[in-house]
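Retry 2 of 3 after timeout on previous attempt. Resubmitting structure tokens to design endpoint.
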């Protein structure tokens, strides 16, 4: 291969002469060439890294997304658990501790903070640190609430063991078995309801169980029958049981009464049959609970024969109807 000879114009001699390269010129040209290659190589690499992900980066990004989804799902589950713990605390405070006359536990104690404003600060430096911090905070708070609740139940267990007679006397079961298809069901709850006869809103001081005539009615706790009445209006055929410890129950609109005044009855014992007597528009049992002569919501006293889930369902069912049967 013949090398091409390069010429240049010499202005002094006014002629073209052969160009001769020095070693310095050759080195300089080489350095410029290498520098250009490096510059454009680095520039292209930066552009590729800026706009295109490597396989490793794609894997890491996918794992981070999955981790974020898992933490969010965990956070949702923790919120559900928080709701359950709050329900347990409300039931403990407003029912169990009231029934057994135990000292209340303040909200400050039940939901007191873990303490230390910078306790989770180091987590904020991690990827998705805020999400991890919030999740850990909720877990710590739930642990504290559950510890308080566990201690509360231990205290109540001691109180209950000391008050066995009281526990057997408290009206703690439904007077009619509900939930079976075709059998009785809770048809109206405690509170202001539309009266079917007077066509006005009135306080309904008990709850109604719709049931066929002749369905057995059971006393909800141990006690003594203090009243047996057969009236044409009002409660119709009805019975009052004194359970002692400040509790009484009333069972109204019966078709038949099978107990007498002064008779000792035990929880679950049949005291009469469902009817439609007195001021009533359909066969049902009207049931009331008294505590220290004050009428209270009987639903709060079904804790002896229903699960927490069944209890919530009963509460929901009681609110569905805004009309009573009496």
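Retry 2 succeeded. Sequence:
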């Amino acid at each position: 291969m013949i090398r091409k000879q390069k010429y240049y114009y010499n202005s002094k001699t006014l002629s073209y002469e052969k160009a001769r390269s020095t070693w310095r010129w050759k080195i300089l040209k080489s350095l410029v060439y290498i520098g250009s290659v490096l510059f454009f190589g680095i520039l292209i690499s930066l552009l590729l890294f800026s706009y295109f992900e490597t396989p490793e980066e794609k894997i890491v990004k996918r794992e981070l997304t999955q981790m974020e989804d898992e933490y969010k799902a965990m956070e949702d589950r923790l919120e559900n658990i928080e709701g359950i713990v709050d329900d347990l605390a409300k039931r403990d405070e407003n029912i169990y501790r009231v029934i057994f006359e135990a000292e209340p536990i303040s909200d400050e104690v039940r939901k007191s903070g873990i303490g230390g404003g910078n306790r989770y600060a180091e987590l904020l430096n991690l990827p998705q640190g805020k999400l991890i911090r919030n999740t850990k905070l909720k877990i710590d708070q739930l642990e504290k609430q559950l510890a308080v609740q566990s201690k509360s139940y231990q205290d109540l267990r001691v109180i209950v063991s000391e008050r066995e007679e009281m526990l057997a006397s408290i009206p703690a079961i439904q007077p009619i078995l509900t939930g079976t298809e075709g059998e009785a069901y809770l048809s109206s709850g405690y509170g202001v309801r539309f009266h079917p006869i007077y066509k006005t809103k009135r306080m309904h001081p008990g709850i109604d169980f719709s049931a066929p005539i002749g369905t057995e009615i059971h006393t909800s706790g141990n006690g003594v029958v203090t009243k047996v009445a057969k009236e044409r209006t009002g409660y119709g055929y009805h019975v009052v049981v004194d359970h002692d410890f400040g509790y009484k129950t009333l069972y109204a609109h019966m078709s038949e009464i099978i107990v007498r005044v002064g008779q000792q009855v035990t929880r679950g014992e049949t005291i009469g049959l469902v009817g439609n007597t007195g001021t009533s528009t359909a066969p049902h049992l009207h049931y009331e609970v008294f505590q220290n002569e004050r009428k209270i919501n009987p639903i709060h006293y079904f804790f002896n024969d229903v699960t927490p889930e069944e209890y919530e369902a009963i509460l929901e069912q009681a609110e569905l109807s805004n009309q009573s049967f009496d």
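Attempt log closed. The domain at 185-320 is CATH 2.70.70.10 (Glucose Permease (Domain IIA)).
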